[in-house]
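Lecture 7, part B: from sequences to assemblies.

Below are the input chains for today's worked example.
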Amino acid sequence: MAKAVVTVIGKDKPGIIAGVSKTLSDHNINILDVSQTIMSDIFTMSMLVNLAQLDEEFNKLQDDLNLLGKRLTVEIHTQREEIFDAMSRV
Amino acid sequence: METTQITETINMVSEEHLDIRTVTMGISLLDTIAGTPQETAKNIYQKITTYAKNLVKVTQQIEREFGIPITNKRISVTPIALIAGKATPDEMLYYAHALDDAAKAVGVDFIGGYSALVQKGFANGDLSLIKSLPRMLTETDLVMSSVNIGSTKAGINLDAIKLMGETIKAITDKSDTANAKMVVFANAVEDNPFMAGAFHGVSEADVVINVGVSGPGVVKRAIEKVKGESIQVVAETIKKTAFKITRVGQMVGALAAERLGVEFGIVDLSLAPTPARGDSVAEVLEEIGLEMVGTHGTTAALMLLNDAVKKGGVMASQRVGGLSGAFIPVSEDAGMIDAVKAGVLSLAKLEAMTAVCSVGLDMIAIPGETDATTIAAMIADEAAIGVQNNKTTAVRILPTNGAKVGDMIDYGGLLGTAPVMPVVEKSSADFINRGGHIPAPIHSFKN
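Predicted structure of the full complex, as structure tokens:
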């Protein structure tokens, strides 16, 4: 099963975690791990999530999260987990 | 997984311009040769559009999944002079248009391999190809060309150099920018994914995926963090950064090859700049400690950079190939352009720099009235550096009619803008006009 990392960076405001979680749940995606901090008003969150499959569904999820990011004026990246491992592990 | 690891990767892409510069599909055309140029051209179109049909789609999906930009999708093919052995210069255009049409049909950015290998001598196809260059480069849009005129094993073909000097002038008479699509090599490599010099060598597998990774901005940012520390710390930092960047290329290349059902060739980690600020090799050299690129110490800093990049890359990839190192094109690098404009970076210094980095005199504008033999002599100097030192060198020089030293010439997009640089005005004509062949250096005899 593939995993993806969803990262959210932007100015803190109510509804960020709610919005991201709702979108994930709408796509029937399970959250495996969350790490979140606020550094001088900047909200940063990384979520590790399970991807049932890597096809059109992934693209739709990414599109929906991008839309959400625009609405909340935060930056949301949805990337497969392997890219982060590739860089830091031999 | 560490959060810092995630942030680091995201910053590399969003702020430091890390990108996969190109996914290049190498396609052998040896099995397309038919009785007539028209039939062969048809086969070429057929083979390319069959194998590369999903190249753009697959790479775009990978971009999406990993959040890493893949700037160019390209194709390289067997040197056309080998495929068109019997063709006349006019007939060569059938092949060129087949390549151009196929590239447009599959939606790639460039197709390379309109090439001839003449380091030891000319065959009919080689001469036809070179003679067709002025027409080819102005009648097609996406076809890139290269001519290899020397190698450590074979020596330097001075007749070919003379011919290329004349050809570059003839191309200039048709177009101010077409020379940007053509490069003259010594010791050309057969698996280079970068343009204009990409071609698919005859010893390569039928179809392969080669990947070119870039990220001068990432290297610069990493060196910023070791300000004032000793030079071996700089070397280590570059190595580690190069390792990380190459790992991305390895992953993307392997995945693209798997999805396209072809073999994975090589990763070429070359710090290739783009005209964007912060994506400049010159700025990396300046971060190492030079006030401006071109000053004393530039060659040493570049040598360290180029070597450390290779060392980091080799460990990170199954197979490293291509040119792997640092590119120093003038028009494509904001820092280089600044240094030329300031009168700090000269042609002579650029030539010295090519002795210790990946390529050669690249994307340099010179006055249009420069004599063909002077251009040829520049090519000869570069070839000498490459042949004697067992490395690739190249010349992509851009004479511009009517332009004076200091004028800015715009080549568009990734090719950038270049200030016209002065050349030495004393003649090299008697040297070039001797013709013949410069023998291979003594250390090439290793058997």
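Note for the exam: Chain A touches chain B through 26 residues (CB under 8 Å). Keep this in mind when comparing with the next example.
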